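Reopening this ticket.

The earlier resolution said the output was attached, but the attachment link was broken on my side. Pasting everything inline this time so it's all in one place.
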Amino acid sequence: MDQQNIHPHKTIWQNKIFMKLFASYSVSMLGHWFDMVAIIILFSYVWQASPLVIALIPVAYALPQVLLSQFAGVLTDQYHRVKIMLVSDSVTAVLTLLLFFTNSPWPALILLALRSAVNVVHSPAQQGLIKLVVDEKLIMKAVTLNGTVNQMSKIIGPFAGASLAGFLSPKFCILVNAAAFTISALILLTIVLNKKMIRETAMVQEKGEQKEGFWSSWLEGWKIVLKSRILFISLISIVIGFIAIQMIDIQFPVLFREIAPDLPELTGWLMGASGLGAVLMILVLNRFSTLNNYGILIGLSMLLIGTGFGGLGFLREGFFLLLPVFLGISAGLGVGLLSITFQYLIQKETTEKEIGRVSGIANSLISMTVLVSPLVGGMLVQHFGVAVICIACGGFLILFGLGLAAGSPFLEGKKKLTKEKAAAVE
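Inline output:
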């Protein structure tokens, strides 16, 4: 079926289905980051949880993603994605409301893990719906709009959430998140109740086509990744990059504690600068209709992140206060470029019936780095010192990025040549 003939929109803003999905995504992302701040404050200050229990918070978020993302991808390729997201947001709102009434760390951790498990379908479903309802020439606009909201939520959510938590209470932020997911579900419900929209967002099935069994569909997803040179090498490269990033990302407060003990706000400055850099990069990418030379783009993103991380390792007492901000912006530019490039790549290198599985596999592997790398990084920091590991991880990312950029022609392979010849003929 010709997707462009079904959805002939001149601009992304004319696509009513996408705009509803975008509104739903925006509300839920903002609520999520309100919630994140509240959870940290509750565990650290209200419940006085031990460092070990606090360390389990990211595990509760990431472990369900690792275990279930691949299966969620299969699910979203076989069933109606809007309905799946509607159920996910509704259950998430209920679990968040239960979290509001929780008064100790362990039940909270269980609810966080359950909520993460329910939410695992969101990313592959979102990616699949963009592929299905957005004109091919507008996919870049859709991806960058979602990326902008994601990064802006990381800036606005923690700032506003921390302020509300201070004026009212951390639990009020949890209530805000429950309301946000309720609103998100109601927006999705308007799509489900609209017969035309629900028909357009359904997976297109050829007449008489049989759905694959669950396990065969899952294996087929891996075959798609392994057979595509661009997908496979890009995914492996991003996982390697994330291993280095996650090893040191959580250790920056330790660095600032050593070189600027009287400026605890530096960590917040760094996070804000990184978010700003990501938003700036995404706004630049929004001006493009297509992306090419994936190896160069992914390599450049690693180089920018490595420059930011490695540069922080060279800071010493008495440093110029704006230096961490500039280095944070550099890292953020790289994060923005990396996230948009890979999302766009998945959109372009898969079909409507494959994208959920490929997205699920990517989410699972990337989430795995969150579980392992921080622990390894923590041990290395304890042994060698935080500055040394910053420089080592930054240096590795720079060299790795340069290698990816140099190997870009190999990454594109014959497929790129074929596309160029086809374009020349047209």
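Reporter confirms the inline version is readable. The CA atoms of residues 195 and 201 lie 10 Å apart. The first helix runs from residue 3 to 6.
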